[in-house]
Amino acid sequence: QVQLVESGGGLVQPGGSLRLSCAASGMLFRNYVMGWYRQAPGKQRELVATVTRGGISNYASSVKGRFTISRDNAENTVYLQMNSLKPEDTAVYYCNAWAPGTDGHWGQGTQVTVSS
């Protein structure tokens, strides 16, 4: 079955950087739109960024210019490079895979905490 495993979260100071990874298995990775979402305590899950099968990316306005999503179809992995992190970026970050005709798949999440 489809598995998405996130890694790379942690504690970082404001202004710092982190790189999240999501390794996919059990699916034909190149056929899926891949995305990162996040959920802060007491808030709804929100879109952070997506990357299409063709490599076109889309970002939430709150992270545009600071975060970069990329995918490596040979490694079945999607990345989220996060720079200039702010305390309001603190959340659990989830990887998502979606293709037409599917309900989509979620990873288990990785915690990102931005604090001094």
Folded structure, characterized:
With 116 residues, the chain is an all-beta fold. It is built from no helices and eleven strands. The strands form two sheets. Strands 2, 4, 5, 6, 9, 10 and 11 form a seven-stranded mixed sheet that branches. It is globular and about 40 Å long.
Residue stretches low in confidence (pLDDT < 50, at least 5 long) are none
List the total number of helices. 0
By DSSP, the count of extended strands is 11
Overall average residue pLDDT: 97
- Describe the global form: globular
Report the end-to-end length measured between terminal Cα atoms.
40 Å
Query: In which range does the helix fraction lie?
Result: under 10%
What summary fits the major beta sheet? 7 strands, mixed
Any key phrases for this structure?
116 residues, seven-stranded mixed beta sheet
What's the gist of this structure?
With 116 residues, the protein is mainly beta. The protein has strands spanning 3-7, 10-12, 18-25, 33-39, 46-51, 57-59, 67-72, 77-82, 91-98, 105-106, 110-114.
Helix/strand layout:
Elements: E1 3-7, E2 10-12, E3 18-25, E4 33-39, E5 46-51, E6 57-59, E7 67-72, E8 77-82, E9 91-98, E10 105-106, E11 110-114
Parallel strand pairs: 2-11
Antiparallel strand pairs: 1-3, 3-8, 4-5, 4-9, 5-6, 7-8, 9-10, 9-11
